[in-house]
Every structure is written in structure tokens, then in C-alpha cells.
């Protein structure tokens, strides 16, 4: 082996999304002496930081033989500068590949094997095909409860773990799939107004049109580093930030990279993802909201109960107190689906506006009340009333503004430049709204990448509509995306079912 | 939807291996109006041919906003020229993703679902992460026998299928894992000398240091198109070519792209891969050789019997007559392991050289004799003697030369520029040679990409060695790879086990 071959960085500006790619000339000394070829995995070091990148080979004068370039993601990871010296070395065969193949072939993994895999994942040593194979090999009930404990523990151990110095530290999570169910910012505002510590880190959307971090980002900066988070929580008792910037459960963030394009989120991965973030965030108490409904992520009471059992088993093994609640998942919550549209609904609830969505308000109060009781802040049976007082009095809104300002300043959510209403083709009663189709349409319209894009619902189940009345409005940032979503909706009119009386 | 946005091609010379990538400016009209971002999958058309490519976004002046570039593989597929106009359109959501996710979640797939997946695979619509997830979801016994029939049939149906006009058309396949077991060219030479039709298409290595196509390529051109194959077979009765150029079972070639870097080859995929190629190649009779040995791919008689049963079940459903034979898989065959080293052994056998490897010769005779009996060319019990006469008389060698010349000209295999012997550290008897370590070392030395690289064994099991005698020699094309293989061998001295008496 060797200490690495030196090359000089040149900026080419190629964005490959999150994949780390290095570009080198085919006839450079490194490629020739090491036998590197396109798709070789190599180690790239600069200034004490080393990453693993996939090689793309250059057969033109884009680069000189002594130069190399990096994809935008790799350039950022290494904090590259034009003309910098980097060192390139071969990546030795990964020992964890034996465990990965064992899992693919259907064998159980123990703590050590799981750690071995998750460490390589977290260090960026896995190319996307390994990540995809791992996720697929663990789906369909192929991770048992103890393997899920191993996976969760490994995910916690390869990242950093926060400590807030005092207990209880509370958290909440919604096992997603319900469009518009954006209770978190409201719950954080209420329970921190009640004096609890709730340093909430959220993810961006995996397969949905908006994650809490995406929505909150239209209201305040969320990509805070750890010192900034500590400052906000120290001052206000809580925050609503993106977890990705603080390296909690970094392996999870990397696995999501392949889960998202495959619309995949298996039970074991889901439990490990949720609980590893909570444990790493230093939480002592977590409330898990599972919406149950035919077109929600969890479709039946049976599936919800199975998931609850696994969540409780794994949380117990990790030393985290959790409370699991089942909620109505039969239709979207609030009116907006998409980052900015959901943010608008949140503001309406927090500000006690007359037309604020009642369902979003009541759900948030239920969850906040449950948390207040779970942590002993309110006596059993009095939590929701306590939460309602904090919301109605404006204390929750004042706390939300304080948190948003501490995070960098309250923002006004953007408004889409292209909108189009979709109207009822007959009058009658709304009998169903398909969560999955709503999400899909919102995504085709551009959410969550386009923050103002999404679906704005004007009806709920049991609403009465007349022919020609708008059922919902599509919001998009580009005409192409608007057209794309509308042509999908043309093919799927059952998104809102209206039955004549 | 739309007919596509026009862009002009610019050559950047970026080799991403087999992945089709398109490069476009972030601020180009296409990306802005369609909402494309890095990793978006898009359809790219030129002159009536359309492929699917992954988008990498350019944030520099590598391209002007009206220009696009393609990775080398995509450029070849579209037969691109500098300045050509291409059309770019969004890729609609893939319907087969529903079936793929169903398989990942552990459900059975029917004929129609499997066809839906395999058609998208064959048309290049799957990014590598989908391919990897599909392969992983089918491994570990998760494809049942009927799903394997569906997979095999789908693989045949999405590609072209050859018809040779007369029967029998014979074929053979070795279920790999045994280094140096390169009987195919010898068997083809013998049975075609006996008058049978054997249009042999072989694959390149998947996880081994050499596939038959890699080895044969050091002796003659193998990347023949279909008219060329028909000409060779019409003239000589047989050929030994690479199957990848004739679009037989194209989905299999694409799945191999992810199986290879993961060293993965599951039972269902293996059976579908082998049999789909045979059926698509128009074979009526196929001989399947399964070497059984502790360090071979198939480790036990039980596993071999399970595989035989599945092969026979699937072949029966596809209308292919097969005969499965179990052979000794306890150690490598011949002396060389790696394309050129194996080719040298083949030449020695065909030319009846005095020091030709006896094991390679006897195996080839057994397989050729079995085929002659299976197809009725020789009476039962006389096949091997018949094969031996054709080899000893020089008729097989003359036929091989004729085939190689018809394929484009007999070649002399290359010789490595860097070699290093590994010697016995004590005297005694060789009690074991580890097939897997031999293969691994040959691959680290550069095989099969570097044709002259590999391992040249100087001993077999039961050989007697003195201290300091060379056990084998490592061959490489670069000093880096030689060093790499040697350092691996340092850590794994059990590759050849010598026991003192």
C-alpha cells in the first residue's frame, strides 16, 4: 500500500446529488499504477479529512493528468479549493460486505455484524448499490426484533449523541404518510411554553411531499449546527430544526438517500430510523403518533399494533421511554399539502385565526396534552385542557415566534407563481380523499423541492359540494410541473370521491 | 407532456462505466421548466433511438445553457456526434415499481409482474439502486420455482431469440466458481468436429477472475454481431463468442452490472441467467456442469441436488432438454487462473502438448463425450472414446483454428509484464488449494480487466513440494496491482496448504 498519490483540485461544477464522485484522467499516473477504472471506489484525503468517492474517468482535456475534480457533494465534504492538493488511495475490500451478503442471503445479523455494516454506511464507504441492497434485504419483515435493536443501537453509536444535562427531554414523532399532518411546530410551541425541554430535530421528506424540516424551513432557518441548537434550546427550551446538520444517526440519513427514490420505508428501518434519532438527540421521553387509515402509511389497526409492539421492544432495549398513540389516518390533515401551504396552516392555528383548520388544531392539542401528562407536567386527564389554555392565550404563538427568531428569524412562507383549481364534476357529498394520490400529486407539482408547490384542499370527507365548486388547487413553481401534476390528476379522478345523494 | 426539449451535444469525455448519465446546465430552460434536479431520470432521444439517463447538473461553463453532454456509455448507445441535436423529456413514473416494491416486501410475483420489471430493466429504465434492490429481494431463496420460471421466461421474451433452422443445437454451461475450469473452447472444438451445431455464446466474468468470453478474447475476437455469428456457425458449425453483443437476455447483462460489484449470484438469478441465455440462443440440448467442492460455488452434494432440481424444473417449463452433471470442485482446474493464463492451458490441450494439464483435458473429454451421447452422435458408453479420438487426431485443434479464424483471426494471448513467485515455506504434501482465495488473488492482480493478469499454479492437491519451491506465480500488468495481490496473499497463506509428513 502507499500514502496516496497527489493530485491538484480543479473545479468542474458537476452536481451528482449526494454521491461523492472523483474525476481523474484515464492516463494519469494514479489510474495507471493502481489499475483504477470507471466505478472504482477510492479514498480521497485533503487536510486530514478522508472520504470515499466513486471514480469517473476523463478521456478529454477537461483535466490535465496531474489534476482531479470532485462532484459538488464531495467538494463540500472536503471543503475543497481550486488548486488544493488531494491524496488518492485505493479503498481496501470492505470487511462488512461479508455481513451484507449474509443478510442478503437471508441470515440473521448480530450486534457486531450490524455495527460493521452501519459504520461503513455512516463513513460513506458504501456505493448506492450496496445501500439499496441492504435496504431491500432488510425489508418485508426480514429484520427480526433483535436485529432491529442491533440496527438502532449501531445507528446511534456511529454518530454523535447529545446530552442536555437535565430530564425530562421530550420528543415526538409521527409515523408519516398522512399529508398535511404537521403538528410538530405547534406541539413544540405549546409544550415549551409549558416549560418542558423539547429540542426537536426533524428530517426532510423521505417519500412524502414535505417533511417537518421542509415545512419549518419556510418559517425560519432550520440547518443549524450543534452550538446554534444549544443556544436556541438554552434560551427558549426548544427548537424545530433539521437533524441532518448535527450528525445524529448519520447512517440513517445516508440510507434515506436510496429509500426515497424507491418510495421504500420498511418496518425495521422505520423503527431504527425513528428511535435512533430520538436516542441520539438525548431524549428521555418520546411520543409516537401512528395515524391509521386505508390510504395512510399504516393501513390497519393490526399493522399499527405490530408496529407499536416493535417500537416498544426496541425503545425498551435502548432505554427510551415511549408512548404510542393511534390517530385517525383516513384523510389529510389541515388544508395545505407541501412545505409552504402547510406552514400557512400552522400559522393560522398558532395565531388562533378564525378559519384555522380545526382538525390540525385538535390533533396538536391532543398530542401536546398527552406529552404534558406523560412527563408529569399535567395531571392525568388535564393535559389537553392545559395545552388549550396555552394555545388560546397566545403563549404558544409567542413561544413559536421566539424560537423562530432564535433560529435566525421568522420568515413568511413563499407563494406559488402557478396555480390551477380542480373542480367537482358533479354535486354531492365527499366520501373519501386518497392520501396517497394527494401526496403523489403534490410531489409531481414539485414539493418538497419547490417549497411553495403542493395541493391546497378546499373540502374534507363529509363536505357537501356543488358541481363546478373547486375541490382543491394545485400550486407549482414552473408551468411544466403544474402541467405534469394536472395530467396525473386527469388520470386519477378518484383523488376526491364525490357521491350524489 | 411534450415532445421534448432540444439541446446540442458537446463531448466532455466522462466515463461512468455502464451508467447512462446526461449533463445539463442548472439554468438551462429544460431543467427550469421541468423541475429537473441532480439524479432526475430523463429520456434522451436522438435520431429515433431513446435511452434513459440520470441527470448530473452542471454549475460551471463546461456547458452552455443550450448544450448537453453524455457519459461515454450513453454517447455510444445514441451514437452521438458533437453538435447533434438531442431531445430530452421527463421519464414518467415506472409502473413496474409497484411490482418491485411488492417483491421487496416479500410477496410472490406472477408472470405479468415479472415481465413488467424485466422489460423496464432491459430497456435501461432502472437506475442502479433499483437493480440492486431487485437482486437483493430475489436472493436468499426468496424466488420460488415458479417465480424463477417467470423470471427466465421474461428474460427470454424481452430480448431476441435465435433460430438455427435445424436440431439438435447444443450448448453447455458450467455453474462457475472453479478457477481455471475453462473446458468450453475445447468442448466446442470437439463436438463441432463431430458434426454437431454448437453456437456457443458466453458471458464475461461476473464475480470470477475470468469468464469464457474473457479467456476466448485473448485467442480470437468474441464481440461478434448476429450476422457475423451466423456466418461463423454456418461455415464451421460452431463459435465461441461473447453473448453480450447479440442482445440475448439483455436484462441479465444489466442485472450483472450490480451483481458483480457485490459478489452476488443467487440461486434463482443464477438459474434464470443460465437458462434464459440457452433458450434465447436457440439451443435444444444443454449440458450443465456443476462442480461441487468445499471452496467451489456449490459446496455440498445437497446444494448441488437442490440446484439440479430447480434447473430441471425451469428448463422443463421452457421446453429445453438439459442434462446436469456433477464434477469434482475440490481444487482449480488446469494451471492458469486469469484470461490469458487459461488460454495458454487451452492451447496446450488442443495441440496435444506433452505438458498440457491432464485434469483440464480429461474434464473436457468427459463433457464432450456426454454431449455426444446426449444428442445421439455417439452410442451410450462410447462418447468419451469418440471425443478422445477427435482430440488426439488433431481434428479438434484444426476445428478450433478454423473457428478462431472465422471469428476474425487466431491470436496469441498476452504475457504479463510483472510476475512474482510465491514459494513454499516448508516441504511436504499439498493437502488443499482454496478456490476462493485463488480467485480473489487473481482478481486483485487485475483479472479479468487486465487479460494477462492472474495466478499460475505450479502444484495440485497431492503434489510433493520442497521448501523454497514455487507454489504459484502472480502475474500483473501494473506494479500496484502486483503489490496489492501479494499483500493480500501475505495475509492469507492458507491459499495452498502444505503438510509435513
Automatic annotation (TrEMBL), chains A, B:
Gene3D superfamilies membership: 1.20.970.50, Nucleoside phosphorylase/phosphoribosyltransferase catalytic domain, Pyrimidine nucleoside phosphorylase-like, C-terminal domain
GO CC terms in record: cytosol
GO molecular function, one term: thymidine phosphorylase activity
Similarity comment text for this entry: Belongs to the thymidine/pyrimidine-nucleoside phosphorylase family. Type 2 subfamily.
Keyword line: Glycosyltransferase, Transferase
Entry-linked NCBIfam families: ARCH_P_rylase, PRK04350.1
GO biological process: pyrimidine nucleobase metabolic process; pyrimidine nucleoside metabolic process
Record EC number: 2.4.2.4
Organism classification: Bacteria, Pseudomonadati, Pseudomonadota, Betaproteobacteria, Neisseriales
Annotated protein name in UniProt: Putative thymidine phosphorylase
Organism: Pseudogulbenkiania ferrooxidans 2002
Statement: the UniProt record of this protein carries the keyword Cell division: no
UniProt xrefs under Pfam families: Glycos_trans_3N, Glycos_transf_3
Catalytic reaction annotation: thymidine + phosphate = 2-deoxy-alpha-D-ribose 1-phosphate + thymine
Domain Pyrimidine nucleoside phosphorylase C-terminal stretches: 429-496
Amino acid at each position: 500500500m502507499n500514502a496516496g498519490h497527489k493530485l491538484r483540485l480543479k473545479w468542474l461544477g458537476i452536481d451528482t446529488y449526494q454521491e461523492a464522485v472523483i474525476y481523474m484522467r484515464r492516463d494519469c499516473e494514479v489510474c495507471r499504477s493502481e489499475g483504477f477504472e470507471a466505478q472504482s471506489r477510492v479514498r480521497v484525503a485533503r487536510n486530514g479529512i478522508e472520504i470515499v468517492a466513486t471514480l469517473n474517468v476523463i478521456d478529454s482535456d477537461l483535466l490535465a493528468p496531474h489534476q482531479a475534480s470532485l462532484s459538488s457533494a464531495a467538494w463540500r465534504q472536503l471543503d475543497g479549493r481550486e488548486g488544493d492538493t488531494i491524496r488518492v488511495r485505493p479503498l481496501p475490500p470492505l470487511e462488512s460486505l461479508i455481513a451484507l451478503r449474509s443478510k442478503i442471503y437471508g441470515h440473521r445479523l448480530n450486534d457486531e455484524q450490524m455495527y460493521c455494516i452501519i459504520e461503513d454506511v455512516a463513513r460513506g464507504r458504501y456505493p448506492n448499490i450496496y445501500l439499496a441492497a441492504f435496504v431491500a434485504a432488510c425489508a418485508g419483515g426480514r429484520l427480526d426484533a433483535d436485529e432491529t435493536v442491533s440496527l438502532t443501537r449501531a445507528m446511534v453509536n456511529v454518530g454523535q449523541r447529545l446530552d442536555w444535562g437535565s430530564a425530562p427531554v421530550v420528543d415526538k414523532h409521527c409515523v408519516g404518510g398522512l399529508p398535511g399532518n404537521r403538528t410538530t411546530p405547534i406541539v413544540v410551541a405549546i409544550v415549551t411554553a409549558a416549560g418542558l425541554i423539547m429540542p426537536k430535530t426533524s428530517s426532510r421528506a423521505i417519500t412524502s411531499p414535505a417533511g417537518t424540516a421542509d415545512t419549518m424551513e419556510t418559517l425560519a432557518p432550520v440547518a443549524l449546527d450543534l452550538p446554534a441548537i444549544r443556544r436556541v434550546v438554552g434560551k427558549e427550551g426548544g427548537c424545530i430544526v433539521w437533524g441532518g446538520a448535527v450528525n445524529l444517526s448519520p447512517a440513517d440519513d445516508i440510507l434515506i438517500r436510496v429509500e426515497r427514490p424507491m418510495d421504500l420505508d420498511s418496518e425495521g428501518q422505520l423503527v431504527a430510523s425513528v428511535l435512533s434519532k430520538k436516542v441520539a438527540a438525548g431524549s428521555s421521553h418520546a411520543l409516537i403518533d401512528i395515524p391509521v387509515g386505508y390510504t395512510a402509511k399504516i393501513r390497519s389497526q393490526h399493522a399499527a399494533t405490530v408496529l407499536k409492539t416493535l417500537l416498544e421492544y426496541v425503545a425498551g432495549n435502548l432505554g427510551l421511554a415511549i408512548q404510542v398513540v393511534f390517530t385517525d389516518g383516513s384523510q389529510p390533515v389541515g388544508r395545505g399539502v407541501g412545505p409552504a401551504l402547510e406552514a400557512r396552516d400552522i400559522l393560522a392555528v398558532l395565531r388562533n385565526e378564525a378559519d384555522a383548520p380545526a382538525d390540525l388544531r385538535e390533533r396538536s392539542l391532543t398530542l401536546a396534552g398527552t406529552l404534558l401528562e406523560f412527563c408529569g407536567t399535567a395531571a392525568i386527564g388535564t393535559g389537553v385542557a392545559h395545552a388549550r389554555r396555552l394555545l388560546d392565550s397566545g403563549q404558544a404563538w409567542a413561544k413559536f415566534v421566539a424560537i423562530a427568531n432564535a433560529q435566525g428569524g421568522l420568515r413568511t412562507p413563499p407563494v406559488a407563481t402557478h396555480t390551477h383549481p380542480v373542480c367537482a364534476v358533479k354535486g354531492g357529498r365527499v366520501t373519501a380523499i386518497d392520501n396517497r394520490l394527494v401526496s403523489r400529486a403534490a410531489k409531481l407539482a414539485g414539493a418538497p423541492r419547490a417549497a411553495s408547490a403542493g395541493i391546497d384542499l378546499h373540502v374534507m370527507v363529509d363536505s357537501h359540494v356543488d358541481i363546478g365548486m373547486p375541490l382543491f388547487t394545485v400550486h407549482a413553481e414552473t408551468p411544466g410541473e403544474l402541467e405534469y401534476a394536472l395530467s396525473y390528476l386527469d388520470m386519477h379522478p378518484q383523488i376526491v370521491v364525490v357521491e350524489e345523494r
